[in-house]
TrEMBL record:
This is Ferrochelatase. It catalyses: heme b + 2 H(+) = protoporphyrin IX + Fe(2+); Fe-coproporphyrin III + 2 H(+) = coproporphyrin III + Fe(2+). Keywords: Cytoplasm, Heme biosynthesis, Iron, Lyase, Metal-binding, Porphyrin biosynthesis. Gene3D superfamilies: 3.40.50.1400. Pathway: Porphyrin-containing compound metabolism; protoheme biosynthesis; protoheme from protoporphyrin-IX: step 1/1. It comes from the Bacteria. Catalyzes the ferrous insertion into protoporphyrin IX. It holds the Pfam family Ferrochelatase. It comes from Rhizobium herbae. Its EC number is 4.98.1.1. Its main location: cytoplasm. InterPro entries: Ferrochelatase (IPR001015), Ferrochelatase_AS (IPR019772), Ferrochelatase_C (IPR033644), Ferrochelatase_N (IPR033659). Fe(2+) binds at H213, E294.
């Protein structure tokens, strides 16, 4: 269709013919104060893709205990890793940078619009879908920025994108990007980030932990592919580096609540390694596209402290791919692949 196809009298102006790419990450509070933290955690922890317990059981605990105690505690943790220059979390800074850099690298596709959103907090997926649509995007690619698929992350982003279409008369076509846990470009980028980080040190780790965010064991038992995709990423990374299994070990971090989560746990492994005589370790977080609370505070601060406290000597955290050239090459490869047939 071209503008000349609009022949009806008094037809309102419409934009069309564009393709949108929406990069989506998990989310972020607007500030580290209690009110912002509570708002963010409430949106996050009422998502049934994240907490699968029945609301009849969960809400009294959430509203009676968790949302009264956790905002202050987590706010303090966020304050230690806040991007003070821009007064925002690094997850927000990196996600915005990724979208801006992506727009530049797709300059050869003039009909493509790139934007970013957060599943929890601002800018919301709905607001960005509406903006892209108004801007003439008849097709939108939603890219949940998680290399490994989990219902608690990927599926909830996709759900929200589809929900945004519910009230639209003229819906855009919607595509969602597949996980890329075994993409050679991603594995190469991780391998490069390990070797180039280790080359900056005057010591070498005996063990490198590949620490992924955990999920409850029960989600895995119900068929979530996340655990297996994490294991595959680590196997391919080991093969790429030519390392044995003992040198690159998979662990799972960020447990929440009393249930059993995927094991081995990162915090317990760090403690045990130090207690059993390992003196030098490195930790990489291959499942996180950008550094955030879970990498900067839980690993680079807390895990490092625990390692030293238990007798370890050298600890280093390998930064996430963030908005660096290797990481952007990964994201661009996925976007160009998923746009095939549309551009
Ligand atoms: C049952 C609760 C949770 C599940 C399941 C879960 C899965 C999951 N999360 C990420 C990535 C991130 N999580 C982050 C923070 C975070 N995660 C949970 C809970 C669950 N996550 C909470 C309550 C929080 C907030 C902090 C806290 O209260 O401890 C973040 C960091 C966000 C930031 O702004 O820095 C990320 C990223 C993945 C990949 C995942 C499952 C695969
Ligand atoms: Fe999480
Ligand atoms: Fe955490």
């Amino acid at each position: 269709m071209t503008a000349t196809d609009i022949t009806a009298p008094n037809h309102p102006p419409v934009k069309f013919g564009k393709v949108g790419v929406l990069l989506v990450n998990l989310g972020t509070p607007d500030g580290t104060d209690k009110v912002s933290m509570r708002r963010y955690l409430k949106e996050f922890l009422t998502d049934r893709r994240v907490i699968e317990w029945s609301p009849f059981f969960w809400y009294p605990i959430l509203f009676g205990i968790v949302l009264n105690s956790r905002p202050a505690k987590v706010g303090k943790a966020y304050a230690t890793i806040w991007n003070k220059d821009l007064n925002e979390s690094y997850l927000r800074t990196y996600t915005r940078n990724q979208a801006e850099l992506m727009a530049k690298s797709l300059a050869d596709l003039p009909d493509v619009r790139v934007d970013w959103a957060m599943r929890y907090g601002q800018p919301s997926i709905r607001s960005k879908m509406e903006e892209l649509h108004k801007d003439g995007c008849e097709r939108i690619l939603v890219f949940p920025l998680y290399p490994q698929y989990a219902a608690a992350t990927t599926a909830t982003v996709n759900d929200e994108a589809f929900k945004a279409l519910l009230k639209m008369r003229w819906q855009p076509a919607l595509r969602t990007a597949a996980p890329y846990h075994d993409d050679p470009v991603y594995i190469d980028a991780l391998a490069n980030s390990i070797t180039s980080h280790l080359a900056t040190l005057d010591w070498q780790p005996e063990v490198v932990l590949a620490s992924f965010h955990g999920i409850p064991q029960s989600y895995f038992d119900k068929g979530d592919p996340y655990y297996c995709q994490c294991q595959k990423t680590a196997r391919l990374l080991r093969e790429k580096l030519g390392w044995p299994k003992e040198k690159l070990q998979v662990t799972f971090q960020s447990r929440f609540g009393p249930e059993e989560w995927l094991q081995p746990y990162t915090d317990k492994t760090v403690e045990k390694l130090a207690q059993q005589g390992t003196r030098r370790i490195a930790v990489i977080n291959p499942g996180f596209v950008s550094d955030c609370l879970e990498t900067l505070e839980e690993i680079a601060e807390q895990a490092a402290e625990s390692f030293h406290h238990n007798g370890g000597e050298k600890f280093t955290h390998i930064p996430c791919l963030n908005d660096g050239a290797d990481g952007m090459k990964v994201l661009e490869t996925v976007v160009r692949r998923e746009l095939r047939g549309w551009v």
